[in-house]
């Protein structure tokens, strides 16, 4: 691990990529007191500066640390699956310097004092920045809105019922209108709760062959369409946490073309896996929304490339053996993903779908803009949340090497190219694989 | 006692809303009410203007102050006053209302004061009855006597309504007081602002010619009058506002928020107040800024003026 003297660290000989400014150049970067003090092509190129700690990047990419917009943890209530501490260790190992955590805990984060609890626990135990979302409705029950104003003051950065869609259009309309009053960001999960009830796969030939209870893929676009009508009515800034079908993509593209304040994300596994990967009832690949057809997967890649999809998320959702070692229909949905987010997403660059700067933008500058964060850029004065990555380093996913307390990875055994080498949060090294 | 035939003031024998009144009508009513303020403060508060007349207070919704105010106004003018509180079931309301009207009509009252939970109820009764009808509140539609008493209160402190900036804050969506006040204040040349979370603002409210704010600091900036509205308990539990503590934090009128208004700004509330929800006690009870008690006094005076004006249209 790197320890800095005088809080000064110099990175030299790096390929600096800053998606926020479009910078992609060889150069150096200076960290002072937890912030970026200087950055540029000529910095530390020739002489070894005497005073600060010097890191020779050897041409590797130095970029802003990643921001993962969709992370479920088990704290409070299910720390045996994941605590804020263990999630942050997984994040650091994945080059993720900020995690936006969902309120689906026990108790649900629907009270200002609970937002405060998350922030305090994170300050005491977590290596990376933890940014809590609060529930949009009390107890995630979809009946009455939460204290959006007070929760925002307490530090909630967005409002969502996590992996639940608010079933009542009336309740969501009121919650969105109220959120708009405070310019609060609403995050929607798009699955019609009645249509997907008891389903564990996408309706189609494969689910039929496996005999799995399945729901039609349109269950997603239906809710996206409904919610966008409510955005139009209320003016609420709204982010769709993760879409997975071409139909949803088209609805969101149309909404953006109409100038509505709408953004969306996609999970790394929906960019890399399709419904056939469920194979012989492989429960670690049971996710929500479920894996889709190959046509929908390629539509997601296209959506990222065209910019309709704004962010790539891990949708990190730890599950224990108790909830995963079950028959497929009975098993819990979810995959851990903090440590595989970057390697999986880099596949898009290796496949030529988009360039590295654009890919990194979906996990740095863009989420920073949507959530109003001061990070996600290599600008002077920004927090020194940094990622040194080798986009070509071979990486084979092995569950027993994960830092997460739960090992339910959908990518077990998968061979990726590229991973984080070193991760800094606020000028402090939190991960070093060199 | 001899009566000279006094000049008519109102255009109709009913008072159903502020809509339909002119600035001349309103000014004349306010002027007339001033004489009743004086009468209310005298030791002999009673005249015989309405001697022999029957006034029925027909209240389908519970009310203490409005009903008492009309009762006192009627009695001070010498009328016989009868109070009827009607409990209604939600079914077949329209039919019940017309049946009630027919029954009452047969008793030959001269004036019917009606409050009903449904918009348009007073107007419906006015078409079925031979007597004068005064709307004491119909659903979220109008409460004209409240707006008139508010105007009287403001005029006594500021001389005129013209050019004043009045911020109406809180549950505008469900408020008939707000709607009547918006109509009256705009008509009389005041600038009206509405301040509320978006869940409590009616759709297309800007069509009233008012300015809309969702933030108290901006909405109260430079206001001469801060008019608070009551937030019903059942609306503070998540459907419109998440909780009363959150409502008070962002929309409750306390010293800090009042400080955003013009120095010397006056505070009004139609009552009954929810202390610690829409208004802090120290503001509500501060006689230097709060006109709340005076509004009640002006309520009796304006209602006497209205009864007087309607009597002039009677046979």
Describe this structure in words.
The complex is a heterodimer of chains A (434) and B (315). Chain A has 434 residues and is an alpha/beta fold. Chain A is 29% helix and 23% strand. In chain A, the strands form 4 sheets. In chain A, strands 1, 2, 3, 4, 5, 16, 17 and 18 form an 8-stranded mixed sheet that branches. In chain A, helix 4 (169-181) packs across helix 6 (218-234) and helix 6 (218-234) runs parallel beside helix 7 (246-257). With 315 residues, chain B is of the alpha/beta class. Chain B has 11 helices and 9 strands. Chain B has a 5-stranded parallel sheet. A 4-stranded parallel sheet of chain B has the order 2-1-3-4, with helices on both faces. In chain B, helix 2 links the parallel strand 1 (54-59) and strand 2 (80-85). Chain B is globular. Chain B starts with 22 loop residues before the first helix and ends with a helix. At the A-B interface, helix 3 and helix 4 of A face helix 8 of B.
Topology:
The complex is a heterodimer of chains A (434) and B (315).
Chain A lengths: L7 E11 L4 E10 L2 E6 L12 E4 L4 E4 L1 E6 L12 H10 L2 E6 L10 H14 L3 E4 L15 H7 L4 E2 L8 H13 L4 E3 L12 E2 L2 H6 L3 E2 L2 H17 L3 E3 L5 H12 L4 E6 H5 L21 H13 L4 E3 L7 H4 L16 H10 L5 H6 L3 H7 L14 E11 L18 E11 L2 E5 L2
Parallel strand pairs in A: 1-4, 1-5, 6-7, 7-8, 9-10, 10-13, 11-12, 13-14, 14-15
Antiparallel strand pairs in A: 1-2, 2-3, 5-16, 16-17, 17-18
Chain B lengths: L22 H19 L12 E6 L5 H12 L3 E6 L7 H14 L4 E6 L4 H8 L3 E7 L5 H15 L6 E5 L6 H12 L3 E5 L15 E3 L2 H5 L4 E4 L15 H8 L3 H4 L7 E3 L12 H4 L7 H20 L4
Parallel strand pairs in B: 1-2, 1-3, 3-4, 5-6, 5-8, 6-7, 8-9
Helix pairs in contact in B: 1-5, 1-11, 2-11, 3-4, 5-6, 5-11
Give a quick set of tags describing it.
heterodimer, A: 434 residues, alpha/beta, eight-stranded mixed sheet, five-stranded parallel sheet, 18 strands, 29% helix, B: 315 residues, four-stranded parallel sheet, 11 helices, 9 strands, 38% helix, globular
